[in-house]
């Protein structure tokens, strides 16, 4: 049927819900898997983009949040809390509003994109800016969830991972099998953990014949997994993945090693180049952090470490409208003209 009921209904048998679970949904999931023509040409591979910015609040977080908020309601919670670099807070605020729950969010002061701040506020979240980074926010949120009657909905909550694994299911359902390689940005490392779980579940029961190699990419100034050490003061223009001590670090290493994959770093320059390529050539507008997956793929191909002919999926995690600053700063300022066709034509080079 053409009606999409949201991912919990679509994958009900593979998720921890019962007939009496009160499903909270905004019809998230079923996002486009777009063939990437130019990136395929450059790499000699068959590359697709899993466009997660097409979710209701504009990021992949909605997959996890439909599950986390559904289970919070089922368990009788009245309030939820999260730490966030922006997207988790936007998603938690929306799903909490839908469910009639109080939503508290802790964000690093001055380090989240304006669109995400707007989303959290418009959906009625109680938002505190913390004088610290994301890692400080997560430690604080975890402590509050222990000491006060409020449920933590960060990806340390296993229901988040359960929801997010459905992206891997959708890819296999569309392609007919798992790809050879799956690329994605890595921040707190929940999403790479979730995809790996989803791919493994499909392979375990024969729905897929195999699992892909998992390729995760961190921003170079915020690459604790690549460096093998906590980054005390993480830096990158990709604020969504400005994280120095990922909660799912060990699980990300397992995804890498069990899949025969890699976790590597990409510079801000490489991220912005991929960001512009995605917008100009593939016509997919993502936020900077999302472009880390494509930046990593292109870097690996340029280093001669990618065999041509592979089928590859890159997850692009969030919508570009959330953080338009980089789109505007990278473009020439628009020219103002009088109401005059000749002047317009001259300016346009027609
Ligand atoms: N891409 C975007 C757009 C994100 O917002 C995030 C994480 C990631 C990638 C990385 O995913 O953390 O599962 O490895 N954002 C979180 C947040 C931290 O608070 O919105 P991850």
Automatic annotation (TrEMBL):
<protein>
    <recommendedName>
        <fullName>Threonine synthase</fullName>
        <ecNumber>4.2.3.1</ecNumber>
    </recommendedName>
</protein>
<dbReference type="GO" id="GO:0009088">
    <property type="term" value="P:threonine biosynthetic process"/>
</dbReference>
<feature type="binding site">
    <location>
        <position position="87"/>
    </location>
    <ligand>
        <name>pyridoxal 5'-phosphate</name>
    </ligand>
</feature>
<dbReference type="InterPro" id="IPR000634">
    <property type="entry name" value="Ser/Thr_deHydtase_PyrdxlP-BS"/>
</dbReference>
<feature type="binding site">
    <location>
        <begin position="187"/>
        <end position="191"/>
    </location>
    <ligand>
        <name>pyridoxal 5'-phosphate</name>
    </ligand>
</feature>
<comment type="function">
    <text>Catalyzes the gamma-elimination of phosphate from L-phosphohomoserine and the beta-addition of water to produce L-threonine.</text>
</comment>
<keyword id="KW-0791">Threonine biosynthesis</keyword>
<dbReference type="InterPro" id="IPR004450">
    <property type="entry name" value="Thr_synthase-like"/>
</dbReference>
<dbReference type="InterPro" id="IPR026260">
    <property type="entry name" value="Thr_Synthase_bac/arc"/>
</dbReference>
<dbReference type="GO" id="GO:0030170">
    <property type="term" value="F:pyridoxal phosphate binding"/>
</dbReference>
<dbReference type="Pfam" id="PF00291">
    <property type="entry name" value="PALP"/>
</dbReference>
<dbReference type="GO" id="GO:0006565">
    <property type="term" value="P:L-serine catabolic process"/>
</dbReference>
<feature type="binding site">
    <location>
        <position position="317"/>
    </location>
    <ligand>
        <name>pyridoxal 5'-phosphate</name>
    </ligand>
</feature>
<comment type="pathway">
    <text>Amino-acid biosynthesis; L-threonine biosynthesis; L-threonine from L-aspartate: step 5/5.</text>
</comment>
<dbReference type="InterPro" id="IPR036052">
    <property type="entry name" value="TrpB-like_PALP_sf"/>
</dbReference>
<keyword id="KW-0456">Lyase</keyword>
<dbReference type="GO" id="GO:0004795">
    <property type="term" value="F:threonine synthase activity"/>
</dbReference>
<feature type="domain" description="Tryptophan synthase beta chain-like PALP">
    <location>
        <begin position="24"/>
        <end position="318"/>
    </location>
</feature>
<dbReference type="GO" id="GO:0006567">
    <property type="term" value="P:L-threonine catabolic process"/>
</dbReference>
<keyword id="KW-0663">Pyridoxal phosphate</keyword>
<dbReference type="GO" id="GO:0003941">
    <property type="term" value="F:L-serine ammonia-lyase activity"/>
</dbReference>
<dbReference type="GO" id="GO:0004794">
    <property type="term" value="F:threonine deaminase activity"/>
</dbReference>
<dbReference type="InterPro" id="IPR001926">
    <property type="entry name" value="TrpB-like_PALP"/>
</dbReference>
<dbReference type="GO" id="GO:0009097">
    <property type="term" value="P:isoleucine biosynthetic process"/>
</dbReference>
<dbReference type="InterPro" id="IPR050147">
    <property type="entry name" value="Ser/Thr_Dehydratase"/>
</dbReference>
<feature type="cross-link" description="Isoglutamyl lysine isopeptide (Lys-Gln) (interchain with Q-Cter in protein Pup)">
    <location>
        <position position="143"/>
    </location>
</feature>
<comment type="similarity">
    <text>Belongs to the threonine synthase family.</text>
</comment>
<feature type="modified residue" description="N6-(pyridoxal phosphate)lysine">
    <location>
        <position position="61"/>
    </location>
</feature>
<keyword id="KW-0028">Amino-acid biosynthesis</keyword>
